């Protein structure tokens, strides 16, 4: 049994040695690494590449992935805030197979592909161990217990509490856009500089008004962060100045100073993961990178193009040394401009303004120059950041070197601007002149329609049971910008539309609204307030600006004329039952208008185009634009001619007063056309048949009813409705309006509720007289063309029809 256990133990040990390193679980070292240590990011991937932690685990040391994830940097990191406080190779990142080696000779270095990327250069100096302290300082301890090397003496961009920052050390920001910033102690002061080819200082602690002076006159040698302040000492450790960057004085709080890539020093409370409110410099425009080069930085970090460069380019191209001297010039950048480096860099010379300009033009490295009018100091810069807006005014003159070609373009652009301004002024004065003339002309015109829009709105609002008022935009969307046309009418076109809820609509867009205003009002006021199975329902309207639209229920089968006036035999033919139901439905709709409404409504334009059919071929009367209202006490009324040729009753022609019997006549013509499947006048037929009403009377007299019926339609000879329909039609088209039956009587006769006597034949002398009239006008248009009599309701020769 003991032998088996021993063999099992040996097997486990052997497997551990044979497994690849990357497959083994890594264990972080605590506080100390011994000589001979070697570790890579891949080996410690399960520990995020970190192989050493301090005693309290506040800090860790190892490889950290950069933003691109594929490259790595050897760092010391504050574990709680995840803030990197030191890095070895930030300028030379390595892959995940690179190793950190702490050699037996005491040298610590990064090895990648056989090359040393970074090293402490401590070989042979008696190093015995590498220790990570709880302060964040990593030290190489010598055999005597002293520090041979420490990370605090080689800072990157961060300073920690109790880290001594002394003359000769340098803090450098992470680069951004190939630009970095540095902090160092030199010449008895702590200075921030921009990393141009020739570094440009832009801040010094000795000039910061926020510092607290403890002892004046000493030369600064070192600085240390303690609690909530930065303390500055001379070479004898005499306390000179103090810079307080946070409230409170908690010695246990860990504050770090970081030189950020924008050139500002910011202070971070690492345990709380918060940033302090104090920054260095204190001015938001205090660094050369506050704005792009050549732009002016204002308070709040707003950036603006200098007035002098505005006409050329806010970011002029650098004039190289190879550019001939006579092709270079200096232009004034603008008034009250300053620069962060002024006051920190020594002047290039002491001269006059012209001497300074001459020096800059003669020095190919000079791109921008400043001249101090008070002191005569001349400052020249080979690179420039952003200008500063000098709020209180300064004595500096600022000039930028540009090529003469670019400067010439400026003059040309000024000329162009002047020309544009003059042209604009001319246009403005012209418009003002035209406006004044137009205003005077309008004042002299008689006031006609000042309140027309509001008057119409008041009219529409006063309608009882007014239908929905749509906006023009709603109807434009519903009709897909009026793209699918259903038909044309005398006052406009009809389009198919679909509302958001899927409801189909027919939208009639009135055109020539000046002459159609009365018709629009009539349509809205009449049909908007009545509802009947055989009347087309007006769902809404639009009266917006010059737009006038009527919104009807959608009638799937369009108008009656397309079903009874067939051009060829292959088209679908309405059967007799459907035709008869259409005739009855139309009669019921008219009877309702004449008898059952509050006021008697005379339609005035009954024709097949104004009888619409729904999906079930139910007939509905439409288009009330020409309708006339009559009180119950009125039996006749005089009005201007309106309607369509071929359907006009004789009283229209003879200027006799009209009544609802005029609609009866028009209905009789439509009924006759339903029966015969042809128009009431057809010039293509022989003379005897061309005028259908006259021919129908003749066939009725001869008892030859089959000649009146549509020859393509099959009709049962025993169906009495044929004879009834023909006789009703002939009663309706009597010349004498007193002989025509009312529409209620027509409905009763068609439904078999009232007998139908034989219609008088002699009454058609007038109708026969019209036959010659229709023949004479047939060459100008069809019998369904509109009446062209002069009146205030004059209608165009185009047929007025409702929604198709």
How would you sum up this structure, described in words?
The chain has five domains: 20-153, Orthogonal Prism (Agglutinin, subunit A); 158-280, Bulb-type lectin domain (Agglutinin, subunit A), CATH 2.90.10; 296-410, Hepatocyte Growth Factor (3-Layer(bba) Sandwich), CATH 3.50.4.10; 474-553, Phosphorylase Kinase, domain 1; 561-777, Transferase(Phosphotransferase), domain 1 (Orthogonal Bundle). Helix content is 24%, strand content 25%. A six-stranded mixed β-sheet has the order 36-40-41-39-38-37, sandwiched between helices. A five-stranded mixed β-sheet has the order 1-4-5-6-7, with no helix packed on it. The protein has a five-stranded antiparallel β-sheet with strand order 15-21-22-23-20, with no helix packed on it. The protein is elongated. It is a single-pass type I membrane protein. Residues 480-753 form the Protein kinase domain. ATP binds at residue 508.
Rg, nearest Å: 51 Å
Tally of structural domains: 5
Number of helices: 15
CATH topology of the largest domain: Transferase(Phosphotransferase), domain 1
Flag low-confidence runs: 11-23, 446-453, 768-804
Q: What share of the residues lie within helices?
A: 10-25%
* Beta-strand residue fraction: 25-35%
Biggest pleated sheet: 6 strands, mixed
What topology, given as strand order, has the largest sheet?
Answer: 36-40-41-39-38-37
The first-level CATH class of the largest domain is given as Mainly Alpha
CATH architecture call of the largest domain: Orthogonal Bundle
Name the CATH superfamily assignment of the largest domain.
Answer: Transferase(Phosphotransferase) domain 1
Shape: elongated
What gap, in angstroms, lies between the N and C termini?
103 Å
Counted beta strands: 45
């Amino acid at each position: 049994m003991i032998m088996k256990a021993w063999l099992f133990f040996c097997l486990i040990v052997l497997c551990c040695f044979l497994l690849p390193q990357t497959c083994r679980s890594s264990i972080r070292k605590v506080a100390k690494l011994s000589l001979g240590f070697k570790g890579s990011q891949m080996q410690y991937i399960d520990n995020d590449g970190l192989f050493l932690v301090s005693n309290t685990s506040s800090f860790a040391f190892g490889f950290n992935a950069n933003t691109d994830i594929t490259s790595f940097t050897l760092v010391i990191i504050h574990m709680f805030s995840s803030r990197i406080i030191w890095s070895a190779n930030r300028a030379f990142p390595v892959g995940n197979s690179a190793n950190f080696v702490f050699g037996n000779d005491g040298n610590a270095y990064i090895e990648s592909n056989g090359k040393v990327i970074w090293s402490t250069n401590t070989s042979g100096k008696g190093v015995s161990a590498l220790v990570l302290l709880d302060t964040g300082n990593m030290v190489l301890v010598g055999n005597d217990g002293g520090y041979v090397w420490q990370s605090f003496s080689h800072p990157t961009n961060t300073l920690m509490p109790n880290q001594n920052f002394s003359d000769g050390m340098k803090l450098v920001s992470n680069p951004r856009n190939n630009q970095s910033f540095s902090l160092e102690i030199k010449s008895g002061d702590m200075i921030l500089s921009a990393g141009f080819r020739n570094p440009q200082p832009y801040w010094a602690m000795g000039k910061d008004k926020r510092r607290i002076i403890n002892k004046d006159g000493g030369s600064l040698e070192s600085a240390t962060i303690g609690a909530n302040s930065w303390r500055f000492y001379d070479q004898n450790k005499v306390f000179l100045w103090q810079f307080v960057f946070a409230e409170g004085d908690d010695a246990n709080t860990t504050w770090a100073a970081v030189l950020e890539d924008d050139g500002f020093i910011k202070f971070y409370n690492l345990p709380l993961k918060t940033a302090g409110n104090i920054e260095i410099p204190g001015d938001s425009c205090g660094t050369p990178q506050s704005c792009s080069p050549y732009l002016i930085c204002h308070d709040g970090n707003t950036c603006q193009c200098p007035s002098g460069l505005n006409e050329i380019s806010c970011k002029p191209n650098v004039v190289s040394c190879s550019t001939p001297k006579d092709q270079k010039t200096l232009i004034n950048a603008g008034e009250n401009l300053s620069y962060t480096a002024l006051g920190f860099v020594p002047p290039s010379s002491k001269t006059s303004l012209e001497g300074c300009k001459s020096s800059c033009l003669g020095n190919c490295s000079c791109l921008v120059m400043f001249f101090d009018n008070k002191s005569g100091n001349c400052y020249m810069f080979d690179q420039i950041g952003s200008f500063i807006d000098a709020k209180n005014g300064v004595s500096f003159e600022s000039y930028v070197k540009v090529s003469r070609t670019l400067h010439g373009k400026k003059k040309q652009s000024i000329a162009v601007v002047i020309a544009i301004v003059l042209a604009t002024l001319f246009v403005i004065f012209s418009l003002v002149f035209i406006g004044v003339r137009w205003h005077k002309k309008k004042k002299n015109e008689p006031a006609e329609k000042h309140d027309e829009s509001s008057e119409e709105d008041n009219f529409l609002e006063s309608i009882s049971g007014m239908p929905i008022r749509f906006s023009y935009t709603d109807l434009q969307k519903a009709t897909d910008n009026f793209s699918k046309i259903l038909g044309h009418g005398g006052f406009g076109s009809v389009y198919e539309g679909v509302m958001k809820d899927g409801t189909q609509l027919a939208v009639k867009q009135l055109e020539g609204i000046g002459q159609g205003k009365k018709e629009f009002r009539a349509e809205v006021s009449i049909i908007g307030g009545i509802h009947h199975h055989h009347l087309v329902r007006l769902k809404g309207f639009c009266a917006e600006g010059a737009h006038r639209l009527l919104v009807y229920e959608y009638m799937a089968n369009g108008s009656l004329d397309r079903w009874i006036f067939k051009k060829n035999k292959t088209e679908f033919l309405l059967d007799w039952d459907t035709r008869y139901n259409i005739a009855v439905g139309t009669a019921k709709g008219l009877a309702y208008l004449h008898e059952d409404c509050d006021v008697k409504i005379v339609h005035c334009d009954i024709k097949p185009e104004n009888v619409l059919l729904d999906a079930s071929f139910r007939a509905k009367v439409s288009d009330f634009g020409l309708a006339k209202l009559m009180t119950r006490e009125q039996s006749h009324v005089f009005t201007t001619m309106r309607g369509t040729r071929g359907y006009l009753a004789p009283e229209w022609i003879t200027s006799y007063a009209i009544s609802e019997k005029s609609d009866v006549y028009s209905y009789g013509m439509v009924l006759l056309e339903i029966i015969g499947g042809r128009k009431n006048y057809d010039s293509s037929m022989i003379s005897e048949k061309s005028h259908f009403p006259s021919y129908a009377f003749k066939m009725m007299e001869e008892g030859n009813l089959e000649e009146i019926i549509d020859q393509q339609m099959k009709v049962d000879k025993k169906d009495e409705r044929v004879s009834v329909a023909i006789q009703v039609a002939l009663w309706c088209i009597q010349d004498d309006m007193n002989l025509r039956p009312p529409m209620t009587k027509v409905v009763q006769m068609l439904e078999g509720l009232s007998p139908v006597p034989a219609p008088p034949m002699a009454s058609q002398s007038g109708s026969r007289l019209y036959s010659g009239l229709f023949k004479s006008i047939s060459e100008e248009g069809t019998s369904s063309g509109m009446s062209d009599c002069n009146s205030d309701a004059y209608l165009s020769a185009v047929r007025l029809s409702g929604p198709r």
